[in-house]
C-alpha cells in the first residue's frame, strides 16, 4: 500500500510539472509581444525602452531561467 501511495505521489508531481511546462510554453509562444502591448500607450517607444522593459520582466534571460523563475513565483503565490 505504501508503494502504491508513493508511486501515485510521484506520478502526481510528474503530471504537475508537465502541465506547468505546457502552460508556460502556451503563454511564451503565443503570437504578440507583451512588452509592445505594455508600452503601446507610452507614445514614442525607443529600442532602449523595450530593452529595459524586457530586462525588467526577465524576458532577456534563457527559457530555462524564465521557466524556473516563473515556477518559483507561482509556487510562492507571487
Class based on secondary structure composition and strand pairing: mainly alpha
Mean pLDDT metric: 88
Shape: elongated
Poorly predicted runs: none
Secondary-structure element order, as H and E? HHHH
Q: How far is the N terminus from the C terminus? A: 37 Å
Radius of gyration: 18 Å
Q: Estimate the strand proportion.
A: under 5%
Question: Can you count the helices?
Answer: 4
By DSSP, the count of extended strands is 0
Percent in helix: over 70%
* Sheet with the most strands, sense and barrel status: none
Outline the structure in words.
This protein has 78 residues and is mostly helical. It has helices at 2-28, 34-38, 47-57, 63-75. The longest helix has 27 residues, at 2-28. The radius of gyration is 18 Å and the shape is elongated. 0% of the residues are buried.
Provide a brief overview of the structure.
The protein has 78 residues and is mainly alpha-helical. It has 4 helices and no strands.
Amino acid at each position: 500500500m505504501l508503494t502504491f501511495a508513493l508511486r501515485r505521489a510521484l506520478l502526481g508531481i510528474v503530471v504537475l510539472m508537465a502541465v506547468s511546462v505546457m502552460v508556460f510554453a502556451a503563454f511564451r509562444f503565443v503570437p504578440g509581444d507583451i512588452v509592445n502591448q505594455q508600452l503601446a500607450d507610452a507614445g514614442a517607444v525607443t529600442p532602449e525602452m523595450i530593452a529595459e522593459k524586457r530586462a525588467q520582466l526577465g524576458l532577456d534571460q534563457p527559457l530555462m531561467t524564465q521557466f524556473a523563475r516563473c515556477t518559483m513565483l507561482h509556487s510562492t503565490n507571487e
